[in-house]
Amino acid sequence: MRPDTPAENVDHTAEAARLERTAGLYPEDAEALLLQAAAHLELSGDRPAATALYDRLLSSSTPLDDPHLVRALKASNLWEYGHEAEARAIIEGVRAAAPRDPAPWVIVAEALESHDELEQAQETFTQGVTLLLTDVPEPPYATHPLLFGRHRVRRMLGVPHDEWDTFADTLHSMPVSLDELHDPKRVWSLGSDNPAELEAEISRLRAELGAYREALSRPFPVAVLHWTAGELAELVAAYPSLAVEYPSHEEHLQTIEGSLRELASSGTPNLGIVTGTVPSYEAFAASELASPEDATLLPQYATTLAARGRATAWPPDRGAQCWCGSQRLYRACHS
């Protein structure tokens, strides 16, 4: 599906089938592709088929990158078509596992929220926030929905602001405040006959829509291609002409960091790194009916890997290991 395809024109069943076929061609990316396929099946209304894809991933002999995310999505989907008891059991399992990724926390908390389990939703949001953000001065962008979701649920419960709510307010950059966006009384204004109230609500909805559009404006990162030392040696040995692009592995790493810093300074958002392999690159070149020695394929290959969900966000979070694989902290390696 093209990024600019209007949602109402998407054949979700056909798109899910296409993604399943693509997963068969690229088994190393099957997790990301099948999760996208399951999302399309949910949108098409075929929730049992989406559950079958989640089960397929969870029963696979290949270890998953994020099994907690798959379980959270399965739980949310199950609850939507009547399997509440199983969904609740999975949600409790996700909470007990205490994943370090914010996405599973957001999904299970929002599942509870959407079924009016507001107290449990607040507990889940709070558990995730406490685990992931205690003593973190600069919360990663991916954790913002945890703070915003917690603020929303607590606003609906009518409880006073605490430090986390105040923190969420400072992160929110839209012209309409979080308190306004999360005001339970807003829903009443939608049924009002007062034009002024309706106009005010339209302004609030536009602000929310702007936030969603900002988050979705780039579906995958602008990614720079990275080769490990072993893969780069194999690549240059097989295709000597590429030595012009990669004089040495050390210079390759320096070029990556320099390119990303230059992109960041120019204002380019959503940057990332994708790691290539020689067999994958050769398969990509074959699919383009081109020779792997064609250096113009390299940025196209990077973009394709990013579109398949293979990108790692840059720069790494504070205290994280460096992207280069040195096992050192980023700030002591390439920062």
UniProtKB/TrEMBL annotation:
InterPro entries referenced in this protein's UniProt entry, alphabetically: TPR-like_helical_dom_sf
Domain of life of the source: Bacteria
Protein name: Preprotein translocase subunit SecA
Species per Swiss-Prot/TrEMBL record: Streptomyces caeruleatus
Lineage per the UniProt record: Bacteria, Bacillati, Actinomycetota, Actinomycetes, Kitasatosporales
